[in-house]
Design a protein that fits this description.
The complex is a heterodimer of chains A (346) and B (102). Chain A has 346 residues and is an all-alpha fold. Chain A has helices at 2-28, 36-67, 72-81, 88-105, 114-134, 145-153, 166-170, 178-205, 209-213, 216-234, 240-263, 270-281, 285-299, 305-317, 322-330, 336-342, and strands at 155-156, 160-161. In chain A, strands 1-2 form a two-stranded antiparallel sheet. Chain A starts with a helix and ends with a helix. With 102 residues, chain B is mainly α. Chain B has one domain (1-96). In chain B, 53% of the residues lie in helices and 10% in strands. Chain B is built from 4 helices and 4 strands. In chain B, helix 2 (10-30) runs antiparallel to helix 3 (40-51) and helix 3 packs antiparallel against helix 4. Classes of the chains: A mainly alpha (346), B mainly alpha (102).
Chain lengths: 346, 102
């Protein structure tokens, strides 16, 4: 525990600084220093800062996903090679070749594992800050004893301290604290719902048909419906303050995910097809292609290649699903670099 | 000897069991994330199989740090241990061999 405390110390310090900073800002706007709302908004502010700091990572990932279109033909070659092969060995070989292709072309569209872990220490830090505040224990840095006490004691709706959890309220020696329990229950439900929607968006819309064809997929779908219940029960032990962090960050993720899936879906997924259809309905699809062509022509006088590329794209695009047809279009031979930089901007 | 080996393998197999549960239940929630092949959890699984709980986890942790947004990714297999003296079951657990290789 002490070992963990030492590792988390810097993060805890930053979490406290952000919390106290937001709290100072809010009180200087005239909000009550000890009010529950002030501290809840401070937690929301903390989430805003953390998630804003993570945005560049997502932007980078999106850029990489766009660059993936450059390698779409090679990717398709690999996919065709393993078409209809469902056994594990083939699937592994396919992932292996795909990864090698990403690396060799520098177009890895995947997010990376480390950022997934970034949230966890913050979560723990906030948890330990709140836990300490419960005993009016000062934090490691900016959160002094007075503020810590205020934070822990801050009450929502007059009677729900932020350090209380559903569990602690239920076992309160002075009898069950109904308000805390109601707030906690509502938050757990909203939290679980937002988590569920986020996952559902990914699983049902943003997975390529290749992934959906894998034997793991059916299992993933079942899990999707079981896991909310796991969250439902684990959520009851967290203090309200931590739950507010969790809830806000979940809602942020949900909205971000929605925007990303809508504007930059995984190629070959249902969301990509929907986007094509949406653009086609608005009549934006054709002009967009023309705009692309014009830009390329302006940039590169290599006009002789253009009709060739278009033809090829049509040939390749016609028998396929609309979702994947976009890739060869944007991926005209030789002009790949120029067009991929311009195509995202309509 | 086998008994001793089996006892020595307990922490490793416990770690493997936890990782397998994670890979079964939690990992699918994230979808495809890892920039490497095999994925970070598969890599850690393999490392623990080869080198035991402590060294394997350490290698896995280093791999996760490597798996950051600035990494190129690609194929990154578990370096096999040269004198691996155990056998793997079909489920991926490590058991002591009845006949020690000479």
């Amino acid at each position: 525990m002490d070992f963990l405390g030492t590792i988390l110390w810097p993060l805890k310090w930053v979490v406290e600084l952000l919390l106290v900073g937001w709290h100072w800002l809010l009180t200087s706007f005239g909000m009550d220093s000890g009010a529950g709302l002030t501290w809840v908004l401070s937690i929301v502010g903390l989430v805003l800062v953390v998630r804003t700091a993570l945005i560049p990572l997502f932007v980078k990932q999106i850029k990489n996903q766009r660059r993936m279109m450059e390698v779409a033909p090679q990717l398709k070659k690999i996919q065709d090679k393993y078409k209809g092969k469902r056994d594990q060995l083939s699937r592994e070989a396919m992932s292996r070749e795909t990864m090698a292709l990403y690396k060799n072309t520098g177009t890895n569209p995947l997010g990376s594992c480390l950022p997934l872990l970034v949230q966890m220490p913050i979560f723990f830090s906030l948890f330990s800050v709140l836990n300490g505040a419960q005993n009016s224990k000062a934090g490691v840095g900016p959160l002094n004893a007075t503020l810590a006490k205020e934070f822990g004691e801050a009450k929502l709706f007059g009677n729900a301290p932020l350090h209380a959890s559903f569990q602690s309220a239920m076992n309160d020696p002075a009898g069950p604290q109904t308000i805390v329990m109601v707030i906690a229950a509502i938050m757990v439900v909203i939290m679980t719902a937002s988590q569920f929607i986020t996952q559902l968006q990914i699983v049902s819309k943003n997975m390529s048909d290749e992934t959906k064809a894998s034997p793991m997929f059916r299992q993933q779908r079942i899990l999707l419906y079981i896991l909310p219940f796991v969250f439902l029960f684990s959520g009851f032990a967290f203090p309200l303050g931590v739950m507010f962090y969790w809830l806000t960050t979940n809602i942020w993720t949900m909205v971000q995910q929605f925007l990303i899936i809508r504007s930059m879906p995984m190629p070959g997924s249902e969301a990509a097809r929907e986007r094509e259809a949406r653009l086609a309905r608005k009549g934006k699809l054709e002009p967009k292609k023309e705009a692309d062509t014009i830009v390329i022509e302006e940039r590169k006088p290599a006009q002789r290649q253009q009709p060739m590329g278009k033809n090829r794209a049509k040939k390749a695009g016609a028998p396929q699903q609309p979702g994947s047809s976009a890739q060869p279009n944007k991926n005209d031979p030789q002009s790949g670099n120029g067009s991929s930089n311009n195509s995202p901007r309509k | 000897m086998i008994v001793l080996d089996t006892l020595l393998l307990v922490p490793r197999n416990l770690g493997l069991a936890i990782l397998m549960v994670y890979r079964r239940l939690i990992s699918p929630l994230y979808g495809d994330v890892c920039r490497y092949y095999p994925s970070c959890s598969a890599y850690t699984l393999g490392s623990i199989q080869q080198r035991g709980l402590l060294l394997g986890s350490l290698r896995g942790a280093i791999r996760i740090v490597r798996c950051n947004p600035w990494a190129a990714g690609g194929i990154d297999d578990v370096p096999p241990k040269i004198h691996f003296r155990y056998t793997l079951t079909t489920h991926g657990f490590v058991v002591a061999t009845t006949q020690r290789k000479v």
